[in-house]
Amino acid sequence: MEQEKEIINRVSSSSIVTFDLEEYYQPGERVLIDIKDQLYEGLILKEKDFREFIKSHDWSFYQNKFVAITCTTDAVIPTWAYMLVAIALGPFSKVIEFGSLENLEEKLFQKALSAVNWDQFRNAKVVVKGCSKVNVPASAYVHAVAELQPIVSSLMFGEACSTVPLYKKRS
Fold first, then answer.
1. What is the distance between the alpha carbons of residues 102 and 39, in angstroms, rounded to a whole number?
2. pTM assigned to the model
3. Residues of the chain predicted below pLDDT 70
């Protein structure tokens, strides 16, 4: 009778540290405000009408939401129009960003990653986790690599059991 060998999980016993960008995702609803909806004939922003919109719109709809402000038509929008929207949103929304929802997501990750104590990864073998349940923008991966590469001993992408090598510090 052959003796069964104990199965050893080498992944869990390795010195590899996983950096999971999903942990830096800020949960909450993302909303886009498109100023195009306030343009006269889809082309012109009339100040009087726009100020009336700002005054009468129910801004409480944006309570605790992440908001991006943009204009998706090819119209010249004065900067003050975006500023008025931001002022109206101020008491309600969590974050206000100019641009698309993608710009908003990038900004949220940038802010979260700026608070990371990167020194905790000094001389570590780090794998930047590739799969997540949320949409992590490519810019967040680039930001993480830019912070990690100068301090880690090696850098990989993927899962601890299947990685793509990215960088290894020379001895």
1. 23
2. 0.84
3. 1-14
